[in-house]
Design brief:
Rossmann fold; 2 domains; 7-stranded mixed beta sheet
Length: 288
């Protein structure tokens, strides 16, 4: 780009570059990248369309646009992702929270009324950025969360989000496999999880943001996508005092519901996401 070109010209060229590299919504994303580089809000961007950009500003914009052109997830570049009324830090090594996962949070909030006495102990297994556990903790002050993941990058991100949301007195961040790091004597009322559920052979065919960048450990569900469910559901059913809720892939609800029943969970139900896809499977314990 030549020096001292108007901002609107930089925006147009960035949009063209992103479109040529197959980025969805190239104009919108170009605007977000310029806002990030220049420390502006989108409204400010519109008001500044005609002003020339300095060499330093161009140097700030270029690498962000190149990263997005390489199909690095937009949320990683921006450093944050909105999820269920929260702004969460995200970055390299962390699965970007999806709107689909909000269906799991909503299912929990319907099952646990705002006036339910606490404390209510929730295990967020495979917490990633902490999205699920932090969303329910923010919405329900009586909730106490064990945020568990097997990798350090997501745990570091969760800790950052716990601090920014000022939830440190109600969220414990633990490293380990499934329920393993939660001490046996600690109560768990609910297990919530968005486990890896993409069949191994399908991952390389997904959009580049996922197949090239997002952590495979958070995606790969084994040959049929259900490998983690087969381990998690029986373990969760044996520990929880109230119930289990998990996110599932678009064609997995019936098979996961059967795993719930085999584990002894009752009142097994499914919940659709905003696209009408059965996205959440929930079940309760029967301790009678």
């Amino acid at each position: 780009m030549p020096e001292h070109v108007p901002l609107v010209e930089v925006l147009t060229r960035s949009e063209r570059y992103l479109r040529e590299h197959g980025v969805p919504s190239p104009r919108y994303e170009a605007e977000l990248l310029l806002c990030k580089a220049l420390g502006m809000q989108r409204l400010q961007l519109y008001l500044a369309h005609d002003r020339p950009m300095t060499p330093a500003e161009l140097d700030a914009v270029r690498p962000l646009v190149r990263r997005r052109g390489a199909r690095e997830p937009l949320a990683w570049i921006l450093g944050e992702q909105g999820f269920h009324d929260l702004d969460l830090a995200v970055g390299e090594g962390v699965l970007v929270p999806r709107p689909d996962t909000e269906a799991l949070v909503n299912a929990f909030l319907e099952a646990v009324p705002a006036d339910e006495p606490g404390p209510i102990y929730v295990a967020d297994i495979g917490c990633g950025s902490g999205a699920i556990g932090l969303a329910v903790a923010k919405a329900r002050p009586e909730v106490r969360v064990y945020a568990v993941d097997i990798a350090e990058a997501p745990l570091a991100t969760t800790r950052r989000n716990v601090e920014s949301l000022k939830l440190g007195d109600r969220v414990a961040v633990l490293r380990g496999d499934l329920l393993g790091p939660i001490p046996a004597k600690r109560p768990i009322d609910w297990v919530l999880s968005n486990p890896p559920y993409i069949p191994s052979q399908q991952i390389d065919g997904l959009q580049p943001e996922v197949s090239r960048f997002e952590p495979r450990l958070a995606l790969d569900g084994g040959a049929d996508g259900l490998e983690v469910y087969r381990r998690l559901i029986p373990a969760a059913a044996a520990r929880v005092r109230r119930g289990v809720m998990v996110e599932v892939g678009h064609d997995q609800a019936a098979r996961v519901a059967e795993l719930f029943r085999r584990a002894g969970l009752v009142k097994v139900t499914t919940r659709a996401d905003l696209s009408g896809i059965a996205r959440v499977v929930a079940g309760h314990v029967d301790r009678a």
